[in-house]
Amino acid sequence: MNQQETAFSYGLMAVTYILAEDALRDRFLALSGLSPDEIRASLQKPDFLASALEFLISHEPDLIACAESINESPKDIVAAWRNLGGGAGQEW
User: Cα–Cα distance between 18 and 91 in angstroms, integer?
Assistant: First the structure.
């Protein structure tokens, strides 16, 4: 699997994780303004997947919990977010 495919997979796992956790799901829906139907329609869009990863990255406890849930490192999740276009222009 190449980096883009891996990043896409992490994005889908992140969305699955967010939607499975009631508090995260409710917060994600409230902050994004998206309906469940809009989320389903966006699952193939890299920018949407990047936004789901960014949602987790923006709150470290959520990032760590997701990483543990999907058996990946937080560092790999951040790398997937960057690969999907997250953080563009934020290189320090």
Answer: 27
Asked if 54 and 86 count as a contact pair (C-beta separation under 8 A), the reply is: yes
Give residues with Cβ within 8 angstroms of 56, minimum separation 6.
14, 17, 18, 62, 63, 66, 77
Nearest alpha-carbon partner for 27 in 56, 48, 50? 56
Give the residue ranges of DSSP H helices in the chain.
3-20, 22-32, 36-42, 46-57, 60-70, 74-83
Phi, psi of 33 (to 5 degrees): 75, 10
Residue pLDDT, tens place only, 11-33:
999 999 999 999 999 999 999 99
Residue 22 lies in domain: 3-83
Number of domains in the chain: 1
Q: Is residue 36, in this structure, part of any structural domain at all?
A: yes
Other CB atoms within 10 A of residue 71 CB? 7
